[in-house]
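FAQ: What does a multi-protein file look like?

Like this. Sequence, then tokens, then the next protein.
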Amino acid sequence: MLTGNVGIEMHRKTPEEVAFLKEIIPGHTYEETLDMFEERFGHRLSKPSLTTWACDNGIKAGTTSKMRRYTDEEREFLDGYVPGHTRKEITDAFNERFEPAITITQVTSYTKNNKLSTGLTGYYEQGHVPANKGTKGMTGANSASFGPGHVPGNLRPVGSERTSKGYIYIKVRDTIPEGGDWRDLWKMKHRVLWEKEKGPIPEGSLVVFINGDRADVRIENLMIVTKSQHAIMNKFGVRGCCEESMRTGKLIADIESKTYRLRKLEFGPLKEMEANKDDKRHGTSTGYQYGCRCERCCSANRIYQFNARQRRRQG
């Protein structure tokens, strides 16, 4: 039987085969079941088809790996030898006496499953004498000790450059100033060039790349913008263009920012509405959108939000 146009032959199991699989799969691995099925019926199933069939019918196969079965003699030895010995000592002693050998991981599993404890804490007992006691001053500096004024072999001189996330950094000093960090050693190269050519960068401003290439640090490819302008320019996708487009984007950002401030100044205080409680805008969605927080407007807004949720549920 072919399924669609995939061309894979599907085997429909007979009632006898189904009964055989239901009896054999529990307690056996899939490989063992496949071998037994082929020996019994003369043809072999694929492992994916068998695992899918077993899963669909809620039949769980035996374990895929053989568990270590301990004899009574081995259990008696482990139960008596575990206290007071490390797991490595237990493993070595067991392997010298019994076959097949076990690993430290198996010893750990056995002790946990049988709630056995070695009794060892891993701490030094009271009165422990360190092995190097009394050796202070007996040895001097070795050939690998760093002396005063040692210079690391991988120290990079001032003026060295490195790249991170597309930006070029240049080393401007060797030592970290008091209260500083590594960022005082390495500066973005395009900011260093801008300050060298144009002067200090105003607080709250950024130096951006006109063509969007962070590796192009030519002064002709740099432009200074405020963080507000940068955010609005990113919003409208004005970046990585020509100089004319970038300057136009700055103008658009200034217009957007100015418009927002005017709206905020015009509608923010709501002096007229606050002074006149009989204003018709009170208690309407329009009034609330203007920012009024009176009881009528808040109540109207709650009703508006409730109706909006109802419409979304119905739609």
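And here is the next protein:
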Amino acid sequence: MRRLAVFLAFMSFLLFPVSVRAQSQVTFERLTIELWPDFDQPSVLVLYDFVLAADTPLPSQVNIRMPAGAQLFAVAREEAQGLMNVEHAPPVQQGNYSVVTFVVTERLEYRVEFYVPYVQQEQRRTFIYSWLGDYPVAALTMVLQEPRAAVNIETDPEMTRRETRADGLFYRTFSVQNVAAGERVALKVGYDNPASELTAPRPAPVTSLEPSAPLVSILPWMLGGLGLVLMIGGGVWYWLSGRSTFGTSRSRKRHAVSAEEKAADTVYCTQCGKRAQSGDRFCRACGARLRV
């Protein structure tokens, strides 16, 4: 009987899902959490940039917990040509959190972007963001992008390091070393935005970056002449073919409207002009962040 019990215990260990054991081996060499409140919409844009430690086996499954109400924007990795989209499962609700799961296949920098709400009372905005300690982290850095129109900014803990980047915005930073699994690191932020201005309002949708036609100056004359010809031709056609053509005309008009609506939904990269595919968050050609 004792031998049977030992055998069953050994078999149960071997039959445990490999992913569960692999999950405990994941360690972040570095993790940067950037918080961009009031960036391109009235909420907080959260950016996770991380690299797995050298002793973490590849491929490894990574689960990122997001607060309830978060809106996932993108999962990507840094390659030579810029950020490239990474396949991931749809977020799954687990208690008070939403979890996005994907597989890290290379020892590159990976990024997860999502939006979380803040609390607004008149012109005051406040929020608390926490790293929940899902994985050990050798070097954790939290960065706050100061909204362009923000005043009376307060943080807890106080972020004494402040610098300007190439975009002309100010960024506050604090770092923590050797964060253990299960150790929580939180940042409380408060500021005033009297005019409710966004740092980078989203531009109008770009449908095409093709250069203007060289004949644009005489286009009104061409359209006028074409319209006159169509009016004369339409009158002749009406007498020749009768009212039965109205149905065909309506059908073609509906088709044209449908084609125009489809073209309006097309998204182009604002950096290189390449058309994006459905679901892309970063340009497949240059890696620029798409405005969708």
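Q: Is there any per-entry metadata?
A: Some entries carry free-text notes. For the entry above: Residues 216-264 form one domain.
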